[in-house]
Amino acid sequence: MDLNLIVFFAMILLLIAIGLTKLNYLKYVMMYFISFALYSSSWDLLYSFSGQLSLGHAIPFGVGAFAIALLASDFNFSPIFALVLASLVAAIVGGVIGTTTIRLRPAYQGIAMLLFSQVLYWFSLIKYGDEGISFGFYKGAQIVTTAQVYIFGLFVFVIGIGSIYYIENSKHRLKLIATKDDQIAAEAAGLHVSKYKIAIFFLSSFFAGLAGAFFALYSLHTDYTIFMVSNSFLPIGMSIIGGSGGVGGAILGSLIISLLNEIIPVYFSLATAYIIYGIMVIVILRFLPTGIIGILSKTIISVKNELIVDSKLVNGKKLNSSRFKK
Amino acid sequence: MLYGLISSLIGGVTYGLIISLMAAGLSLIYGVMSNVNTSHGMFYMLGGFLAFLASFYLHLPPFFSLLFTCLASFVIGIGVLLLIVPSSLRVTTDPDSQNQVMILLLALATATEYVVLLVFGGSSVAVPSMIYGTLTFANGVYITYQTLLASLISVVSYLLLYVFLKFTKVGLGIRAFAQNKDLARAIGIEGERLSLIVFGIGVLLAALSGALLASIFSVNSASGWNELVISFVIVTLGGIGSIFGSLLGGLIYGIAYSIALYYYPSYAFIIVLILIYLVLIIKPTGLLGEIIERV
């Protein structure tokens, strides 16, 4: 069975278990985790399945957050409808910006995204000021208490990451990986590389927007800091630490960083936390490029092999020991 | 009305001149490493803080604090590249490896930003002027001597850079590598070692431009990202790999920015950035990409 799927189901069980308790603080931490797990999975979808590096993935994330804030405060939408609509807005904004960057050289694409995240940073700072937007839902106010928002978040987690997992393992998987590994060879084999790239950009922006909209929904606030470069760096760091190339790595990485985000500021400060993330990313990218999930799968394989050697059982049958020695 | 615009234009041209130094550094690094240095803005910020450190803690006179900034950033740049980017990734055209280097340098930039925040705090710092006073023309058009001197220093740096690239052996290697990597490798130029020198010089230029602009404006720990984006558009505007292309791109950016600043003060940065980006989309080789000889 796929390790990504195992991590995903284990995480759902853990989230349900926490939902059954009355630990409201832990629930808030896990809502941060839900939002960022989806955010970094969407970045990883773009990075590992179409070879596009987005250094400004805060664009769809922040647009989703601002869109839900405006839809709730100015247009009085109900939470679920606002969430879906905000994700669509983020998909369109992020997708259109991403589509323009495809024309540039590969190394330029990331910086072009960074450019637009800076543009949106200044725009939101000038338009909405230091204090940002604080909002509440009047219509469909059934999502009020922490427990209710948490259940809502659980659905976002299951649907969002489930869809990303589905996309990554659908019949297009090989085509996407081919697009990433060698664009020219993929084109020569008859793939519409740019079509796939654009499609993945829209999808990735949609899920990042969903994550941002949920982030704003549970904190009921959003401001210009959401477009900061450090916020674009976080999903990158999470995916790299967990291991890129699947939802499992993004989930593990964001779980670790969400927990560290609560632990480190108690002893040091939030700035120290970012320094530690930066160093972690450098060390892991240099010495453990497969990330935590890579270590996990390696251990699982070696444990499996040991078990096989110990019992000399393969598929329930006893192995001929002389054949095994060979 | 007109005189206000002239004042604004003078400011824009000098700003463009100084910031284009940083862009020239980005362009040099791209020429050899064929990668965008995502930590370039961090070195701009570091340059401002190094000059601040030199003048307030080491009590160096302003000119020597500039020299200190250049030397220190050169050494830091080489050290950083040696420490965090493996030699196999330094000179590569493989998109996957390029992405890895960009992530490594972005992680470095983010970590350093917060180190500076912890050490110096979040407030802005300014470097003392080398020279005080203002040159005033008629009708309130003026320019401070410090701005003039800073522009002069950037012009001199451009000349030094030109001499270095045109008349030294290392400069010849850099130009050869920027033109054709395979051929340069074939005649025995080592890209990995060359990339160290180029990275050092590139971030030196970023730090110099940061120190000069910190003496006119100020820097804080979060600055640098804007400048990274600005130097990116300048480089692509002028065409990659050409020093005078980035000089021209910087001047175009400065003039456009000052005009936008005069008419739409709050959205000037956004308007200019998006306008230049649209130009790039229409003409990805840059305005001057094919015209200017690659120096």
TrEMBL record, chain B:
Belongs to the binding-protein-dependent transport system permease family. LivHM subfamily. It is found in: Cell membrane. GO terms for cellular component: plasma membrane. PANTHER family: AMINO ACID ABC TRANSPORTER PERMEASE PROTEIN, BRANCHED-CHAIN AMINO ACID TRANSPORT SYSTEM PERMEASE PROTEIN LIVH. Pfam families: BPD_transp_2. It comes from Candidatus Marsarchaeota G1 archaeon BE_D. GO terms for molecular function: transmembrane transporter activity. This is Branched-chain amino acid ABC transporter permease. Keywords: Amino-acid transport, Cell membrane, Membrane, Transmembrane, Transmembrane helix, Transport. The chain crosses the membrane at residues 6-30, 42-60, 66-89, 101-122, 142-165, 194-217, 229-254, 261-282. InterPro entries: ABC_transp_permease, BCAA_transport_permease. It is a multi-pass membrane protein. GO terms for biological process: amino acid transport. Its main location: membrane.
